[in-house]
Amino acid sequence: MTKNKNQTLKERDFLSILDFSTEEIFKIFSLAKSMKKNPKKYSKTLDGKILMLIFEKPSLRTHVTFDVGIKQLGGDSLFYASSEKNRIGVRESFYDVAKNLERMVNGIMIRTFGHNVCEQLSEHANIPIINGLTDLEHPCQAIADYLTISEFKKDLSKTKLAFIGDGNNVAHSLMLTAAKVGGNFALATPIGYEANQMIIDSAKSVAKKTGAKIITTNDPMEASKNADAIYTDVWASMGQETETEKRKKIFLPYQVNSKLVKEAKNDYLFMHCLPAHRNDEVTDEVIDSKNSVVFQEAENRLHAQKSIMYELLRD
Ligand code: CP
Ligand code: NVA
């Protein structure tokens, strides 16, 4: 059965920021704000719905916020403990997994390595698939992050977000969200650690329609200049642990510290998806400063994902 391709988000997948239109992203923000303000109003909206949570990488925030979020909407979750032997697509085919699960649960959130794992489930399962992080994208994070920025800055089209560090999954989803909302996005990475070229091309193509400005550079000072928000993430993502020591040397000039943030506006927001490696990619001084909104971002994962789950899973 084909998934809903009509005007609503109902029964659609969320694998990439590109799956949502600009209007749909703003609708998600506005519903998330309403849910944050008045959670009781939505407490039965996903009554009886079961969301399966599959984690093939570690998690704190994503696990807790999806679990708590579906319960706060009247549904329930099922945690699938993935191990070497029962990884999705290994013990049995993606097709067989999808055809089983669509008869048992109402939606699947998956955190995994290859983005193709999400795509395979999406292709075969007639229930919504939500990307809880792959090597390519972390779309729920970026939605929560722009929701957070919008709580401080009225007009996202006038907001510059500078991402300093690795051109990774989080950088990709933020760049695409900036493109969708018409924002100004600057990414500074070391040479050899740039963002995926397909993501940059997609973001620039969306930007032509929305008026967004997407800049990529190897100069962290240039990227941070007049920024409204400075964002960083770990230098070695999950799955890249063996490169940690090598990356520490390469990324040191990209550390977000008190010298770098002087380039930003005085009232800049410091952002990080967390977990942070304190005093590597960001100094204690910056992450613990009054400009830091990292815990508000983390809380907003809950509200943003409740909004996404509601739109995708509702009757
Ligand atoms: N930011 C984020 O996704 O956190 P977890 O890895 O703890 O889920
Ligand atoms: N880029 C990080 C994000 C963690 C939330 C990783 O993939 O490990």
Give structural notes.
- The chain has 315 residues and is of the alpha/beta class.
- It has two domains: 9-137 and 300-313, Aspartate/ornithine carbamoyltransferase (Rossmann fold), CATH 3.40.50; 142-295, 3-Layer(aba) Sandwich (Rossmann fold).
- Helix content is 41%, strand content 14%.
- The chain is built from twelve helices and nine strands.
- It has helices spanning 22-37, 61-72, 94-101, 115-124, 139-152, 169-181, 197-210, 220-224, 244-251, 258-261, 284-287, 294-313, and strands spanning 50-55, 76-81, 107-111, 129-131, 160-164, 184-188, 213-217, 229-232, 269-272.
- The strands form two sheets. The protein has a five-stranded parallel beta sheet.
- It starts with 21 loop residues before the first helix and ends with a helix.
- The mean pLDDT is 96.
- It binds phosphoric acid mono(formamide)ester and norvaline.
Short structural summary:
This protein has 315 residues and is an alpha/beta fold.
Topology summary:
Blueprint: H1 22-37, E1 50-55, H2 61-72, E2 76-81, H3 94-101, E3 107-111, H4 115-124, E4 129-131, H5 139-152, E5 160-164, H6 169-181, E6 184-188, H7 197-210, E7 213-217, H8 220-224, E8 229-232, H9 244-251, H10 258-261, E9 269-272, H11 284-287, H12 294-313
Parallel strand pairs: 1-2, 1-3, 3-4, 5-6, 5-8, 6-7, 8-9
The protein binds phosphoric acid mono(formamide)ester and norvaline (NVA).
Phosphoric acid mono(formamide)ester binds next to helix 2.
